[in-house]
Amino acid sequence: MGVSVPIVAIVVSFYLVAFLLAVGAERRRSTAAVVPDEYDEKTYCSYATDASTVYGLSAFVLLAVAQALLNGVTKCFCLGRGLMGGRSAKTLAIVFFAFSWASFVAAEACLLAGSARNAYHTKYRANFGIEHLSCATLRKGVFAAGAAITLLAMTTSVIYYWAHSMADTDGWVKHQN
Fold this sequence. Notes:
This protein has helices at 5-27, 51-74, 87-119, 142-169, and strands spanning 32-36, 42-47, 125-127. The chain is mainly alpha-helical. The chain has one domain (5-170). A three-stranded antiparallel sheet has the order 1-2-3, with no helix packed on it.
């Protein structure tokens, strides 16, 4: 199996769209304000749009699809014949396989935790002047970290695919006339 340009293009496009969605999620994080209730002497938290939760979950799904597609094509070292390449090609493929999965898990954790925390809205109410009401919101940078790690996952996954294809064919690619 040689490097397939359509597979690389599809996987990279999934990763880039996931990156853009994660950046969009960071920019559209929920904000909260303490608002007085118009009917009684209490205040409550009023939250702005919840779009970043949807963006974060969409990035989560696209990242998972890209990782599944790439590992399905390479058979994830579990199925198929063994790698034929020299020791350096096999070692490179194994190292980037591990880095690919580690960065994938880290990016998924940031995106899922950010989406879950952003979707959480407190329902606390307080009387005027009795206690300070703090509205829980997502910390700045969680989705940005997910976006950055998504780019790292894309890079390591493409290098893993390239190294796996080189080790799989022992560097030889069948040419068609």
